Amino acid sequence: xxxxxxxxxxxxxxxxxxxxxxxxxxxxxxxxxxxxxxxxxxxxxxxxxxxxxxxxxxxxxxxxxxxxxxxxxxxxxxxxxxxxxxxxxxxxxxxxxxxxxxxxxxxxxxxxxxxxxxxxxxxxxxxxxxxxxxxxxxxxxxxxxxxxxxxxxxxxxxxxxxxxxxxxxxxxxxxxxxxxxxxxxxxxxxxxxxxxxxxxxxxxxxxxxxxxxxxxxxxxxxxxxxxxxxxxxxxxxxxxxxxxxxxxxxxxxxxxxxxxxxxxxxxxxxxxxxxxxxxxxxxxxxxxxxxxxxxxxxxxxxxxxxxxxxxxxxxxxxxxxxxxxxxxxxxxxxxxxxxxxxxxxxxxxxxxxxxxxxxxxxxxxxxxxxx
Length: 371
Known about the structure:
- This protein has helices at 2-38, 46-53, 78-88, and strands spanning 91-92, 95-96, 101-104, 112-113, 119-126, 129-138, 147-156, 176-184, 196-203, 208-216, 221-223, 231-234, 238-246, 256-257, 261-262, 264-273, 276-278, 288-289, 300-307, 311-318, 324-333, 336-343, 350-358, 361-369.
- The protein is an alpha+beta fold.
- It has two domains: 46-272, no CATH class; 276-369, Immunoglobulin-like (Sandwich), CATH 2.60.40.1930.
- Helix content is 15%, strand content 41%.
């Protein structure tokens, strides 16, 4: 009986090994087919064909309104976000990427694109913290796993606007080439690249930095056809506005396309929140929101607040309609007393309200801007 049991055990083990091998083979086939099915062709990209037919284009698709932008605040891509945590545990350059924040742009797949030496343009706008953009990914026309390079340009102020013979992307004026970086395509042809390291792009708090990526060897791919408003992606630290496509960047010739959404993501680290100063007066006994001073004011005023324990503190400004117009603080603070200044130089005279949320503590007070 002992020998029979051993034979049965061996037979069961053989069956298990065969089953696992068959499953792995089937899974590999399915993964391969899935990857193949997701592969797309760049040969029929509308912008590429249009540019070929408009070699002496005078600017197309440029009736764009960038004065009124609606931030995208409900982006939800759980599959992308779950992968970000795994990819972030790495180090590169001067930053620990486990601490890097991720701002997803258009998740794709791309439906349009261009040729080698084309460039895509987008804006980075920092809110109340200095932002250092360290890595990103982007759609392109490369074959799976292929290597290529992109030239990275930056400028102070917006990168966006046309038509082809005007706008920031029509000349080299104001632009600085900060580096040429290697890029590796992801597992899908004409898909999104692997994350690649940028020369650090620093965006001072409340400022705008325009960025251009000029593609070498292969062309860009992005999402969008025709015209319309720019695509805006935003979190609590950074606004990404994307973007323009140009077939002959930094010249007044070629073709101009907008809006064209970046397919991929940007990764960044944050600096200290601007304007919040510790008063260094010990640990207070209670939560407190002080009345702003001076009040009335023009154009800036100071607000004191105190927290008796480490808390995530949010201080936001609202107009008389209850609409949020500014954020003065939105971060974790240690117990203590603080001051924050609000510069309302860009706001019109009137009554405003400021509200603190710290743990379970909330309070709202009124202030008056008189110009």
